[in-house]
Amino acid sequence: MDEQNLESIMGLIMNSGNAKSDAMEAIQAAKEGNFELADEKIKASEESLTLAHRSQTGLLTKEAQGDNMTVTLLTVHSQDHLMTAIAFKDLAVEIIELHRRIVK
């Protein structure tokens, strides 16, 4: 695996992990009634997901141009992190909305 692909894969893992952590912190803030912080954490989660998507897009673009890479366990792991973070952020938004309704 070349250095550029490794950097993209590690970017996927790191940014996806950050996105999931921020989403979890957003839920915790909502549980405590701090919806301003919850919203900030969701925004941070979305920003990390954007960075992760950029890493993924770089890999997909290279593949579309015929520069195929060997799929390794690390590659699969990075994609798993991204998909889990996306799902987690989406669920966090719904959970936060439920907490808002309960408080009202």
UniProtKB/TrEMBL annotation:
One of its GO terms (molecular function) is metal ion binding. It is an enzyme of class 2 (transferase). The modification Phosphohistidine is found at H77. The keyword Nuclease does not apply. Keywords: Magnesium, Metal-binding, Phosphotransferase system, Sugar transport, Transferase, Transport. Its EC number is 2.7.1.191. It comes from the Bacteria. Mg(2+) binds at D80. Signal peptide: none annotated. GO terms for biological process: phosphoenolpyruvate-dependent sugar phosphotransferase system. The active site is at H77 (tele-phosphohistidine intermediate). Its cofactor is Mg(2+). Binds 1 Mg(2+) ion per trimer. The keyword Transmembrane helix does not apply. This is PTS system, cellobiose-specific IIA component.
